[in-house]
Amino acid sequence: MSSESSCKPVNLFFTLNKPEDGDDSKKCPIIFVHGFFSTNRTWNFVKYKIANKTKRKVYSLDLRNHGLSGYSEFFTSRHCMVDIENFMKSQNIPKAIFVAHSLGSRSVMDLALKKPELVEKLIVEDMTVTDTTDHPTNTKRLRLFTTFVDRCIRNAPADTSESDLHKKTLPMIKQFYPEISESFTSKIIALPLKKDKSGKITWDMNVEALFHYFDNLHLFQIDLSDQPKFLGKSLFLFGEKSPLKKEENEDVTLKYFPNAQFYIFKGGFHTFHLEFTELFIEVVSNFIEE
């Protein structure tokens, strides 16, 4: 599989939610972008309240090779960025506020640096501008876990339910990710699964393309060779238990996002919008409206 290709966009599946009392048409919308090994559904616990608090329309996307969006052999940060830009054009969105998680944040940061006119504000959840020294180790752990789940899916009897598969993988989640509080485990690692036409549980993503990423980590590095800067407001969210540390990444973040703010979730590991739902809603909504 080659990464060399003109960045032809794929169509992105999305959901649109509006505030219960109507949106303020003068305000630009919010676009939620999930991370690796996820879908737009990960935002269901927070997007409705954020829409109501900010009086803004909220779009939640499936990235390429995830959920109901188009599949492609090409899966890089730049391809995902082009998809997002194409989505904005198709929906007549001239500018948006982005809330992005994990690997999805790389594509959104890339967009902010390359096309700042499209981004009003940026919220990055547990991701760095550049790869950290332990990034390969963290990715290896995710690959081992994904390989285990893939084996469970392939070997599961035809009548296995999604709930049964979650129960089977729960002990491995605890083994691979001991940092996650047990009370949050089943909620945080919500496996991206669906039933195929025969009724058998399968992945709700293009697992072949995603496995290719594990062997090509450079495909999601941002090209910083021309020293780009995003001068808009941005908020970088870190977690106390996350391998990604604010103090180790603050200088490089401010180099490219000079107006960045930082927030650390005490006890947080990686998916703060699920670990600390109400606090996440408050922090993000306040930043959007300030």
TrEMBL record:
Its EC number is 3.1.1.116. This is sn-1-specific diacylglycerol lipase ABHD11. It is an enzyme of class 3 (hydrolase). Residues 29-275 form the AB hydrolase-1 domain. The keyword Hydrolase applies. It comes from Araneus ventricosus. Keywords: Hydrolase. Belongs to the AB hydrolase superfamily. Pfam families: Abhydrolase_1 (PF00561). GO terms for molecular function: hydrolase activity. SUPFAM superfamilies: alpha/beta-Hydrolases. InterPro entries: AB_hydrolase_1 (IPR000073), AB_hydrolase_fold (IPR029058). It catalyses: 1,2-didecanoylglycerol + H2O = decanoylglycerol + decanoate + H(+); 1-octadecanoyl-2-(9Z-octadecenoyl)-sn-glycerol + H2O = 2-(9Z-octadecenoyl)-glycerol + octadecanoate + H(+); 1-octadecanoyl-2-(4Z,7Z,10Z,13Z,16Z,19Z-docosahexaenoyl)-sn-glycerol + H2O = 2-(4Z,7Z,10Z,13Z,16Z,19Z-docosahexaenoyl)-glycerol + octadecanoate + H(+); a 1,2-diacyl-sn-glycerol + H2O = a 2-acylglycerol + a fatty acid + H(+). The lineage of its organism: Eukaryota, Metazoa, Ecdysozoa, Arthropoda, Chelicerata.
